[in-house]
C-alpha cells in the first residue's frame, strides 16, 4: 500500500496458494528399485503419469548422500516431474538446489494435522491416483457423518462428498474430495476438493468457519464478510477466487 | 453394579476438583457408598478440598506399585459416612500410573462401592486419559468462556474415541455437562457466554449449573466440600446436580439474574 506501484506496470503478484501435490515418499534410495516399482505402476495407470509434479520426500531414508540426480532421471523417464525435495541432510539440500529443485524442511512430528497429513496418508494417495485415472467417470462415494465433529477431530471423505448432520466445531477439520455439506453450524475448517476438484462447494446452515478452501483456494475467517457470518451460506470457486454467498 | 464417573474438562482451573469433591459428598449424603480418586499425580489437591490432607499416608501410586494395600490408602471422610478418598501422590509424576494398575484398583473398588469418581488432571495427556479410560459416565466441567468450551469439546472427542467403551465398541460413555462459575449478571452484560451458547456448541445433556459464588472459595480453603453449605447457592446447585445424576428431574436454578428486592437494593446485598 505504501509502495506507490501503478498496477498497470506490475509484471506479477505473489499469491499464497495451497496446490494439491503428490508426495513420493521414498523408502529406498536405490534408483534401480525405484525404477522397477515405477514401471509397474506406470503399466497399471498410465493416466496418472502425465508430467505430474511430485515432491520427493526422503524423510524416511537414513542416507546422508543420495543419488538424487539418478532418482530424478528415473522419475522423468516415467513422466513424473520432481519439483522439490522434502527432508534429508544438508548434502541432500545442497544437491537439490544444484539440480534446480526446491527444498522443504521435514514435516515435524505431531504437527497439526493439516493438508500435509492428507497427502501423506496412503489411502489418500491411492484415491488420488483413482481420481486422476477416472477423471471422466468419477465414482463418488458420499460419506455421511452424524453428530458433532469436535475440536481436534478430523473427518474426511477421500473419494466423494462429505455430509455432516450436526455441527463442525472450532478446532475441527472436515475434508472432502468433493463437496462438503454441513447441516448445522460450521465453526471449524472445511476443505473441499482436496484433490483439485474446483467444482466442489461448501454448504452450511450457519457460517462461522475458521477456514474455507476449495481445491486449495482458501479464505480465512477474517477474510469473510462479517455480514455473511452466522447465516446459511454456500462457497464456490468462481472468477479465480472463492465466492461466499448467502444460501437460499 | 458400581458406576465409574470421570470428572474432566481439558482446561485447568475450571472447577474439576471442587466439583468432584462436592458431587461425591452429595452422593454419600444420600447413602451411596462413594469413593473419589485423585488422578492428578504430582499436583495433589483433592485431599485439601476434602480436608483430609493431614491423614494421607499412602496414595494411588503406592497401591499401583504394590507398596501398600488399597484399604491402607483409602481415607474415610470424617463428615459423611460412606465416603472415601484415594489421594494422588505428590512426589511422583503421571508416568507412574499404568493402565493395568488403574484397571486393577477400579475392579477391586467396584466390589465395595456404588460410585467411583475419578478426578481428572487438566490437559489431555496420560493422567487425563487414564482417568477417563474406564469411565461409564463423564461429567464435563465447563466455564462460560470460549477457551474452556473449546477444551471441553476436545475432551468430548477423546471420550468418544480414546476410552475402553469406545475401543471395545460398547455403549458410549454417558456425557453430562456441568457449567460452573456461571454469573448471570456478566452473562447479561456480554462478558460471559450464555448457557444456551455453551449447550449449542457442546450439544450434550446439561447435568447442572453452578453459579459463581463466594461459598466455593470459602469451602475450598476450609477443606469442606461446598455441598455441606446448604444455605449457599453453590451448595444447593451441587445438590440439584447430584439429584439429576441419580435420575431425578430438577428444575434449573441460578441461571437468571435475580431481581433485587427493595431491601437488598437499599443495603446492596451481594450474592452468597
In order across it, which strands form the biggest sheet of chain A?
A: 5-7-9-11-14-15
Q: How many beta-strand runs of chain B?
A: 8
CATH architectural label of the largest domain in chain A: 3 Solenoid
Low-confidence stretches of chain A: 109-138
Q: Kindly report the greatest chain-chain contact and the residue count on each side.
A: A-B, 13 and 13 residues
How far is it from the N-terminal to the C-terminal residue of chain B, by CA?
38 Å
Overall shape of chain B: it is globular
Name the average pLDDT of chain B. Answer: 94
Counting DSSP E segments of at least 2 residues, the number of strands of chain A comes to: 15
CATH fold type of the largest domain in chain A: Pectate Lyase C-like
CATH class of the largest domain in chain A: Mainly Beta
Count of domains of chain A: 2
Oligomeric status = heterodimer
Order of helices and strands of chain B: EHEHHHEEHEHEHHEHHEHHH
Helix content percent band of chain A? 10-25%
The Rg value of chain A, from CA coordinates, equals 20 Å
Radius of gyration of chain B: 18 Å
Q: What is the string of SSEs of chain A from the N terminus onward?
A: EHEHEHEHHEEEEEEEEEEE
Binding site for ATP (chain B): 11-18
Domain AAA (chain B): 2-150
GO biological process, one term (chain B): division septum assembly
Organism (chain B): Vreelandella titanicae
Amino acid at each position: 500500500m505504501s509502495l506507490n506501484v501503478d498496477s498497470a506496470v506490475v509484471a506479477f503478484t505473489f499469491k499464497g496458494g495451497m496446490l494439491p501435490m503428490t508426495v513420493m515418499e521414498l523408502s529406498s534410495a536405490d534408483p534401480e528399485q525405484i525404477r522397477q516399482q515405477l514401471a509397474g505402476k506406470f503399466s497399471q495407470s498410465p493416466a496418472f503419469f502425465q508430467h505430474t509434479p511430485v515432491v520427493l520426500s526422503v524423510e524416511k531414508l537414513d542416507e546422508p548422500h543420495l543419488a538424487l540426480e539418478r532418482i530424478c532421471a528415473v522419475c522423468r523417464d516415467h513422466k513424473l516431474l520432481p519439483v522439490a525435495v522434502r527432508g534429508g541432510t544438508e548434502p541432500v539440500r545442497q544437491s537439490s538446489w544444484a539440480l534446480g529443485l526446491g527444498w522443504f524442511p521435514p514435516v515435524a512430528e505431531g504437527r497439526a494435522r493439516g493438508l500435509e497429513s492428507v497427502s501423506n496418508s496412503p489411502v489418500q494417495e491411492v484415491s488420488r491416483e483413482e481420481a486422476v485415472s477416472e477423471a471422466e467417470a468419477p465414482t463418488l462415494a458420499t460419506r455421511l457423518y452424524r453428530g458433532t465433529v469436535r475440536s481436534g477431530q478430523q473427518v474426511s471423505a477421500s473419494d466423494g462428498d462429505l455430509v455432516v448432520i450436526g455441527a463442525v466445531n472450532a478446532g475441527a477439520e472436515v475434508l472432502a474430495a468433493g463437496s462438503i455439506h454441513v447441516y448445522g453450524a460450521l465453526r471449524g475448517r472445511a476443505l473441499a476438493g482436496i484433490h483439485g476438484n474446483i467444482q466442489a462447494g461448501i454448504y452450511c446452515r450457519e457460517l462461522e468457519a475458521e477456514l474455507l478452501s476449495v481445491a486449495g483456494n482458501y479464505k480465512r475467517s477474517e477474510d469473510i464478510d462479517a455480514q455473511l457470518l452466522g447465516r446459511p451460506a454456500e462457497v464456490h470457486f468462481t472468477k479465480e477466487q472463492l465466492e461466499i454467498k448467502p444460501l437460499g | 453394579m458400581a458406576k465409574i464417573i470421570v470428572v474432566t474438562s481439558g482446561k485447568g482451573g475450571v472447577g474439576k476438583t471442587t466439583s468432584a469433591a462436592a458431587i461425591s459428598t452429595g452422593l454419600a449424603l444420600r447413602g451411596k457408598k462413594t469413593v473419589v480418586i485423585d488422578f492428578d499425580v504430582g499436583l495433589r489437591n483433592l485431599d485439601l478440598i476434602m480436608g483430609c490432607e493431614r491423614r494421607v499416608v499412602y496414595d494411588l501410586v503406592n497401591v499401583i506399585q504394590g507398596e501398600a494395600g488399597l484399604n491402607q490408602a483409602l481415607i474415610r471422610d470424617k463428615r459423611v459416612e460412606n465416603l472415601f478418598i484415594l489421594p494422588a501422590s505428590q512426589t511422583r509424576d503421571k508416568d507412574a500410573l499404568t493402565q493395568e494398575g488403574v484397571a486393577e484398583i477400579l475392579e477391586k473398588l467396584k466390589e465395595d462401592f456404588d460410585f467411583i469418581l475419578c478426578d481428572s488432571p487438566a490437559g489431555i495427556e496420560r493422567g487425563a486419559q487414564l482417568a477417563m479410560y474406564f469411565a461409564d459416565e463423564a461429567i464435563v466441567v465447563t466455564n462460560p468462556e470460549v477457551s474452556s468450551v473449546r477444551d471441553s469439546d476436545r475432551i468430548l472427542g477423546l471420550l468418544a474415541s480414546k476410552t475402553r467403551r469406545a475401543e471395545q465398541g460398547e455403549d458410549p460413555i454417558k456425557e453430562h455437562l456441568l457449567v460452573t462459575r456461571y454469573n448471570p449478571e456478566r452473562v447479561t452484560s456480554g462478558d460471559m457466554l450464555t448457557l444456551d451458547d455453551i449447550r449449542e456448541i457442546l450439544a450434550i445433556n446439561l447435568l447442572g449449573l453452578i453459579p459463581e459464588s463466594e461459598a466455593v472459595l470459602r469451602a475450598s480453603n476450609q477443606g469442606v466440600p461446598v455441598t455441606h453449605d446448604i444455605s449457599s447457592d453453590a451448595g444447593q446447585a451441587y445438590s440439584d446436580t447430584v439429584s439429576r445424576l441419580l435420575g431425578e428431574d430438577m428444575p434449573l436454578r441460578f441461571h437468571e439474574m435475580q431481581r433485587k428486592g427493595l431491601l437488598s437494593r437499599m443495603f446492596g446485598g451481594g450474592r452468597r
